[in-house]
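Researcher: Checking consistency across runs. Here is Ig-like domain-containing protein again:
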Amino acid sequence: MNPIFVLRFSGGALALKIVQVKVPLAALIGHSVQLECIYSLDGDSLYAVKWYRGVDEFYRYVPAEEPRATVFSLNGIEVDLDESNANRLVLRSITAETAGRFRCEVSAEAPSFETVSGHADMTVVQLPQRGPVISGGKPRYSVGDQVDLNCTSMRSSPATNLTWYINGEPAERHHLQVFPIVEDIDGLETSMLGLHFTIKTRHFRKGDLKLKCTATLAALYWQSNEASAEPDRPVHHQRSSSSEVYMDSNSRSTLASAAFTVHFLGQLQRSTLLVSFTLVTLIYFVSLS
């Protein structure tokens, strides 16, 4: 996980300055995270380093005192004192309440007594327990039919971002139906995105029609699900070109192959079968007499 570095500081043109505040942009629920406050004293002596979430102070480091580090109770905050110091702060077993704006405040000793601060924001993420689910498809389609599919990503925080692809290309916006986010009683969210379009011959220009839905969440999660449709070849003795397709997960349908073979029995083959059947029938009745 690559943290995003966001620097906001207050204070004038002083010797003491904040160089960088490093906070993960997004972190997984239940994991530990490391926050860093990098500053330059430039000849001053350090008096204290304080960490806040919002307006609430929860960690203070004063090198002249004993113990040097003090923790103040705050919901969603569990400081690992053994791993924290004047520059680094480690939070254990983070929860949804841990998220927020974290501010590092640095103060110098006498004679300047100057104070500077910087901040960065962190989101806490709970991933879905399974990948996105595609629903609503029919077992067979023909060119001209309407495709109506839904992609659902269950119970995450925040809700996942869903994207539909048709043959590897993002679906056009007018083919999409965005549903409202559904929030469960425990705060977890479910997202759903519909896909609606009419099947054209061009959808099979490169072979099978592939429909894919992806679910993403920050830079921590990417999952996809795919359905494919296989075109039936046109029947030679028919003038119309109504292609039929068979929705399938990954493999071709044996039934479709059998239907394909039957379709290709032309007029000559059917006549030959009829003659053969007549001869067999005559031989059978002659043997009986």
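Researcher: Does this match what you'd expect to see?
Model: One thing to look at in this run: Residues 196 and 278 are 52 Å apart (CA to CA).
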